[in-house]
Design goal:
By secondary structure, the chain is α/β, with parallel strands linked by helices. The protein is built from six helices and eight strands, in the order αβββαβαββαββαα.
Length: 256
């Protein structure tokens, strides 16, 4: 009886968290950018596979992982009531980071969300650029976020607080002129959720449920890694909007 009672509490808590995420994301306009694309491959697995310029021996390209996460994240955000625009669809390349920002701004403004026919000319609430890191060490893993403007920092912090659980290694936030965050048009952040050059991450990406016993199950748990990251991205965005609405800005979880 006690087990049933505890189970009912856990289920109730899950519904409360889901309802909270749905409420805080309802009506938000979120621009998602899948980093790289086209001939811009990003990091590759195995580590060092492309040192000679020949990518034929590479098995994973960051651009594909980024896009898979963005698609999964888009579905979850829309289920929670948010409106989502994408800076790239499929394996297309937009020549510059500035063009990606401009694409996001134009798509957000073009949305027709009210009962009046025509574009609402609304601004994106946030722009999130999804990336994954690379290293020459196939054992190394970690999570970091990147921001440029002071107004971007709370978003980067909330995303980091949620995502570092993927690796157990919080690398903190990197502040500087990187990628799309240099443009002041939108509150934006870049996430580097994990290193695709890590052997355990690669196995999870390929096989999902059957991975090497040497991989720490406490970190590299069975299941769809893309889906898990997408859910943590949702959690980070939810924490950001919740904190923003309450006048805070640091979100929940482990501090930097």
């Amino acid at each position: 009886m006690k087990k049933l009672f505890l189970l009912s509490i856990l289920i109730s808590a899950l519904f409360v968290l889901q309802a909270s995420a749905t409420t805080v994301l309802l009506g938000k306009i979120i621009a998602l950018d899948a980093g790289h694309g086209g001939e811009e491959l990003g990091a590759q697995y195995p580590a060092n596979c492309a040192n000679d310029g020949d990518v034929s021996d590479c098995k994973i390209f960051e651009k594909d992982v980024n896009l898979a996460v963005v698609y999964a994240l888009k579905d979850k955000l829309e289920t929670a009531g948010a409106f989502v625009v994408l800076t790239r669809i499929g394996d297309e390349t937009i020549p510059s980071r500035k063009e990606r920002v401009d694409t996001a701004i134009a798509k957000c403004a073009a949305l027709d969300l009210d009962s009046v026919v025509g574009a609402d000319n609304r601004k994106c609430d946030v722009l999130l650029s999804v990336h994954h890191n690379g290293s020459t060490n196939p054992m190394y893993d970690g999570t970091l976020t990147i921001y440029t403007q002071k107004s971007d920092k709370p978003l980067a912090q909330s995303l980091l607080n949620a995502l570092w659980l993927l690796t157990g290694n919080n690398e903190g936030m990197l502040n500087g002129g990187y990628g799309m965050t240099v443009y002041k048009n939108l509150v934006s952040a870049i996430t580097e959720a994990y290193y695709i050059t890590n052997d355990c991450e690669a196995e999870l990406y390929f096989y999902k449920t059957t991975i090497t016993a040497s991989c720490d199950k406490a970190i590299y748990s069975d299941g769809d890694r893309v889906d898990r990251e997408a859910q943590l991205q949702v959690d980070g965005l939810s924490n950001y909007f919740t904190s923003k609405g309450s006048g805070g800005g640091k979100g929940g979880g482990k501090p930097q």
